[in-house]
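Example (one chain per record):
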Amino acid sequence: MTGIDTKKLKAFLKISVVCAKNLPAMDANGKSDPYVAIEYGKTHYRTNTKRKTLNPEWKEDFVLPVMENQRSDLLILVKDWDRLGRNELIGLLVFKISKLNTDGNTQWYTLNPAEKLKEKGVDYAGEIKLGFLFKENK
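Predicted structure:
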């Protein structure tokens, strides 16, 4: 494993990004081009972009190294890809690794709407189905 101090490696966290439903339309065509960005400390991952949908299916897995004494929050960001201009945040989730249900089973989470949506009176940004599996480094 390049760039990882294995002496300080506590575990691996597998994140399964399955799908989302009822995302708000961010584009003029009444759809969105959603993708998921995952951030944990200096580690960043991203799913493929699903074009013109409010109910995307990703079915992608990512494995994060979790280091001893790492205090970072796990951020799950659902964004709308734009060909012109900046990609827009649709909704997000913030998790403490120690509080996650890490048995590998998937479940639905309600996204917290982005500030831009809240300013427009939107208080629901859809839901995302995720799974987490924690494996201790031995």
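Caption: The helical segments are 115-119.
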